Amino acid sequence: MTITRELKIKNTLSGEKEIFKPITEGKIGMYVCGPTVYSYVHMGNVRTFTSFDVIYRYLCYLGYKVRYVRNITDVGHLVGDVDEGEDKIAQKARLEQLEPMEVVQKYTNDFHDVMLTMNNIPPSIEPTATGHILEQIEWVQQIIKEGLAYEVNGSVYFDVLKYNSEHPYGELSGRKIEDLLSNTRELDGQSDKRNPLDFAIWKKAEPQHIMRWNSPWGEGFPGWHLECSVMSTKYLGETFDIHGGGMDLKFPHHECEIAQAVACCGTKPVNYWMHTNMLTMNGVKMSKSAGNSFLPNELFAGDHELLEQPYSPMTVRFFFLMSHYSSQVDFSNEALQAAEKGLKKMTTAYELLQNMNAESFTGSGDSETAKRIQNSCEMCHVKMCDDFNTPEMVAAMFDLCSVINSIENKQIKITDLDAGTFELLNNTFSGFLLDVMGIKIESDANDEGNEEAVNILMEVRGLLRAEKNYALSDLIRDKMAEAGIEVKDGKG
Amino acid sequence: MTITRELKIKNTLSGEKEIFKPITEGKIGMYVCGPTVYSYVHMGNVRTFTSFDVIYRYLCYLGYKVRYVRNITDVGHLVGDVDEGEDKIAQKARLEQLEPMEVVQKYTNDFHDVMLTMNNIPPSIEPTATGHILEQIEWVQQIIKEGLAYEVNGSVYFDVLKYNSEHPYGELSGRKIEDLLSNTRELDGQSDKRNPLDFAIWKKAEPQHIMRWNSPWGEGFPGWHLECSVMSTKYLGETFDIHGGGMDLKFPHHECEIAQAVACCGTKPVNYWMHTNMLTMNGVKMSKSAGNSFLPNELFAGDHELLEQPYSPMTVRFFFLMSHYSSQVDFSNEALQAAEKGLKKMTTAYELLQNMNAESFTGSGDSETAKRIQNSCEMCHVKMCDDFNTPEMVAAMFDLCSVINSIENKQIKITDLDAGTFELLNNTFSGFLLDVMGIKIESDANDEGNEEAVNILMEVRGLLRAEKNYALSDLIRDKMAEAGIEVKDGKG
Fold this sequence. Notes:
2 copies of one chain form a homodimer. By secondary structure, the first copy, chain A, is an alpha/beta fold. The first copy, chain A, has helices at residues 43-62, 85-91, 100-117, 133-145, 160-166, 177-182, 224-236, 250-265, 296-301, 313-321, 333-354, 368-385, 390-408, 419-436, 445-466, 470-482, and strands at residues 8-11, 16-19, 27-32, 65-70, 149-152, 155-158, 199-204, 220-222, 240-246, 270-276, 279-281, 284-285, 329-331. In chain A, strand 5 (149-152) and strand 6 (155-158) form a beta hairpin. Chain A starts with 7 loop residues before the first strand and ends in a 10-residue tail after the last helix. At the A-B interface, strand 3, helix 3, helix 4, helix 15 and helix 16 of A face strand 3, helix 3, helix 4, helix 15 and helix 16 of B.
């Protein structure tokens, strides 16, 4: 399959919008840093994963075969009851001990539930850090062999200064090693590190540390930065196309990933780095400590003092799409309610579209209306190809909504456009709404069935009143009230 | 929490029903062999996992704190394109190669979907074989050190004859080593094994084998039997309470698990072994090759030539419960339809129960009716405590259904029992139906709303016909037909 559209991606590494060229024609390898599963997934993560879901969806829509890898960070830092001492912990029956993987399972399940609710497509591969301990140990061995890491007291540190003498450290985040050094406090002699900028790629497990594996340096666990290097390389190759994550991961996490990959494999790991931006609530950075953050399920249920009402998962999804992935998203009840209205406009237009028929259009493909439609459809693509500009794509989609409404209320006549242009409208609008934006139409079939039965009842009741058959019309009203079905009386 | 009821479990190891005694008071460690995720989960697996879900649910209902581990077997045997030769495979870009973990992800997602649909509770921990390669290598090393395994050409084999000279091999499946040996063909010199009964605990990866890890014996992958020993021990301890699986796993898989654990840890790994039985279709063993098997989703959709209609996930669940876990289950349309009716009886009784009020009962707790209820409630527990006898528990539940129906139609009067006995009925029936049997009540609120509106329409239509207002009654019929609502005309 040949991809005909030119896609531009703003590459954090260069700071420029670059024309995207995949390493292997027609295929894309994409890695996104996933959640740490030691607590409920927070809204910032949900926004990041939803952004990359839309990016993934659009890449597939363009015709690319995408291998999308999003990891689960499950190496935790849970410790046992220190008071009991090492021996007592060892003597405890296994079932009496806290098992980190039980915690991991609980929050992984929650994370998957939220992703499903948000209609995010599962990644092609969802590898876990604990599932790649052997590979991580091999990387540590190789980096030591390359002379860019050293072992002290059972831990292994990456030698940032030595690395920097050969390769620039700080390229991605635009930091200079001198500035970093001058902003770092002197080591107080308590640390095993040669230099405060060095970071652990393998850590010795203290006695109370529960998660531990044997290694050439004794029992320990891998440093956090290492897992993403190891898993992305394993499943996507030493250099792959796109690496994404929240902007808070740019430094040091992604900077360390680059250093590790260059040290171990001798190549830069990623061609295009992409970062999503932060969330604010009423203009203030959202955080647990500021008390202005809520969990996804609190948002969906409207169960938080900052929220005036529940907001459905699709409303939240649409709300995210109304900002560019690299912009801050400011939560507020006003903005969420606006998204709710916008989404309703989209889904209503979609439903109207289902009852229209291409063959009924008998006009010309050169008409003003036809050209307007062709232009807005093209804009959907143009905006997405411009670094996935979802808010401007949504604007083009709103124009298509207006067109659909105008067809419905006959302001646009069937002689105003041709069948081909209508087909284009239908395919583009449905494709972008469902496949690219990933909106799940939540019109409930039963609800509709019910609505129809109620509509018939209302109509019959009107006719009965017209016939002055009040006995029966009142009976209908009473029965409906009894069944809890709302009756809205017209005037008269 | 003290568990007051005595539970008996038929232990495959002894062939006897034994009184269950947990290793740690109030806690249970349970391991069940999970699916291999290289194809869609088959009905036999669904039956096994649903059986153990009910067992898990009842253990929790009794008050035990259960750590339930069910693994995912994701070490597959996918090979690359052999024609291309080792070098060409190595040269291929990573993204051009088949990636086993992509296959694994697809079928793991499918498996989780089916488990959710069947209302099976996710296990406490769901470890993967690929996630425990390091631990498996350590077991192989230890077994070699104990002198019970040997390396040949990069593979490591468990020495069954030597093991058998110290410990009985075949205990679980009741096989004798002499019989096993006489039923085995002589090795033809092509094999690295010393004896045909020996089994691989580590296998050398041939060039075309895609999944491979470094080990002290070169690149390879763990033998299948090893993963369950390693993961159950890691999360439940060297000896744990319950190990379950399908009866086809008894030999050699579980037999090998015992041998590995005894060889590596010096202890028998499991106190109670439990095995589920096979599925048949119209009396014939269900299998892909016999052409008489269907996938879960085919069963739910009625999409198979052997199926007369769709059967809902809860119907299938109830159908499984109507057999003991250790009995064969014979699928047939008759049996599934009987289960559908039985389930309907249960859920209808449950809904009736919701509208009854304990305080309205003014009789005595010594009445015949009260005693009947007390007895049937007790029977629910007695039967489940007798090796999880679900069909007899269901029989007691059907008696409670009859009681509820009799209360509803006033055959049992409010003076026939006391509030306390009604509470017992309510708690037991609801608890067993929802929490132990795991039935999800699928009464759709919208459906009910619709039904009511339709009922009112039908009533009004009858009245209109009585008034000889055929114009309006026919209009209702036509409108309903138009809306796709079924109209059933009475006589006349």
